[in-house]
What we know:
There is one protein chain. An 8-stranded antiparallel barrel has the order 1-6-5-4-3-7-8-9. α5 (250-267) packs antiparallel against α6. It is of the alpha+beta class. 52% of the residues lie in helices and 18% in strands.
Amino acid sequence: MATSSTVEAERKFDADASTPLPELHTIDGVGSVGKPASYSLEAIYFDTRHLALAARGITLRRRTGGPDAGWHLKLPLGPGKRTEIHAPLGTAETVPVELMDRVLAYTRGHAVAAVATLTTERTSYALYGHGGERLADFVDDYVRAQVSLGDPRESEWREWEVELAAQDGTDDALLESLAGQLSGAGAKPSARTSKLATAFGDSWPDLKGNTHTDSFDKGAAVAPVLTYLQDQGADLLLQDAHVRLGRDDSVHQMRSVIRRIRSVLHSYRKLFEAAPVKELERELKSLAKTLGRYRDAEVLHARLRKHLDELPSNLVLGPLQVELDQRMTVRADTAMGAVKNRLNSPRYFRLLDALEAFIDAPPVTPQGEATARNTTAKLVNKAAKRLGKRHDAAVAAAVGPQRDKAFHEVRKAAKKLRFAAAAVASVHGKRAVKLGDAAHTIQSILGDHQDSVVARTELLKLGSAPGVSSAAFTYGVLHAMERSAADATEEEYLRHSKKALKLRLKK
Length: 507
């Protein structure tokens, strides 16, 4: 089933039934107004019985009538903006899979069903610029609503809406100008977030994710950390949909978000009570491991195939490209099956619930309410000192597996330092950004080193497998190439690490 998406930029206004239409042609920038187009629309809205989607500012509906009949999913993008995904009408009994995959992280296994039906008598006017270009659409709606969730009830009202015609929704200045002039003409900017919210009235849920900031002083150490965790939590839900939809690089992006959350929880664990942090860390680590099996297979496949393709043909003994592709495809498919099972599991949904509960009502210690600058600088600098110690251990380690493992520990310490610095960039400014960038450089260099370690381990298995025959020679050549690559990354790391290891935040 084909889907499409657009960015929607709009403003809503309240209007009494007797309110005359504004003189649209007098609005600055409007050269002409198109003939009115009238439609009779019916929209059936879907949600869980707890209104889980509504609590996220998400709308899922099936609309008939008008030029955009079909399934619509609206996801928040920013103030006054939403991403709208369309799917064909299909049937009213079944939400399209492509849309459900985008909201499973929000519904978390709870059934979705019709919660309200809205019928709208719409009159739409196209607004054109002086050059004939379509600027926006002005809509005059008479709405009747029937809520079927809980105690059935009905209501009706009139509203106006102005929406930019541009698909990218980027002309904020034009939208503000149109909205401002409509207000000046007597229209009342609407406080409602949607027609559905108006239909539900007092039963409409509060938006999630906006509660913690009022509970703590903005200068408290916990404040920037919670803001960072909230942002990453929102990104986690977005990446969840991308993984379910099979987007390129989505597993990697989702695992990266999980690592950010886990790292920041660990680095700032003293700001919170210990038990909830440990439980979250444990579950996040397990989830990252499940995602990692697929991601590692993906990276390993790409790396080995690249080096194999670079070899002169006379050094490639046997159909190794085909064998490698088959082997790694089976591994990746098995790993992706495990990922999908995990993302549909009650355990995963409990983790999402626990993470949100932690952010909304954080178990803060007295240290978390201490002054942000001094407290966070101390914890970030502690992470920097840990990186220094692991560096010393790696440099002193004997060449071979012991040294490879030690450099991997350096990489993990650099990653934690990077995210710890990023979480408090709003407090420490450019110095935190500089420290985070330096840690990121170390992480990237040693990431390539670790990829080489994994590749060499795989090549040893391939080269020593029963029946490998002459192909063992090619695997040996690739192993030597990976050893040289690892040596090069070690040298690169030593060149970049000197300055990075000295950076600290000021208290």
